[in-house]
Amino acid sequence: MSATRDGEVTETLRQSGRRTPFGSTRALVIAMSVLAGAVCGLAPSSVPALRVVFALPLVFVLPGYALLEAVYPPRTLGWVGRLIVIVALSLACSVLGGLALNLTGPGLTRVVWAAFLATTAVVGEVIAWVRWRDFAEDDARTRR
């Protein structure tokens, strides 16, 4: 999307009165990503259930949610569309990341994979915050 198109989308969203949750949602996704990455990468092999519980959102939800927030304007997709795109982006990130990590020096290990997925989610949320913060600032100014 071009900068002009981003400005048009932001203006349309502001005029329609739709808001996007900023702050707490991003902090929650970042915290969950870091926690899940740490547990999946560093938990001992004697507790596989704990690793599975934290690996499921790390593989199927968190990277896709962060990338969706970074790529799509706030509130432009319905909940079904968002769910499909979140899972699709997460799986694409996992598959392509796994292929790329397999070519690196450390190879495809549990620690490297967990760190990659957690980092992808955190970077995606930071990009989303930078990209859409103007909308949040404009929205806050119009409400005063």
Description:
- By secondary structure, this protein is an all-alpha fold.
- The chain starts with a helix and ends with a helix.
- The longest helix is centred in the last third of the chain and has 34 residues.
- About 3% of the residues have low confidence.
- It is built from 6 helices and no strands.
- It has one domain.
- Helix content is 79%, strand content 0%.
Explain the layout of strands and helices:
Layout: H1 3-16, H2 24-42, H3 48-60, H4 62-71, H5 79-102, H6 110-143
Number of domains: 1
N- to C-terminal distance = 30 Å
**Class per helix and strand makeup:** mainly alpha
Pattern of helices and strands? HHHHHH
Q: Helicity, in percent?
A: over 70%
Percent strand equals under 5%
- The rough form would be described as elongated
Low-confidence stretches: 17-21
Average pLDDT: 84
- State the helix count: 6
Q: Give a quick account of the main beta sheet: strands, pairing sense, barrel closure.
A: none
Radius of gyration (CA) equals: 17 Å
Extended strand count: 0
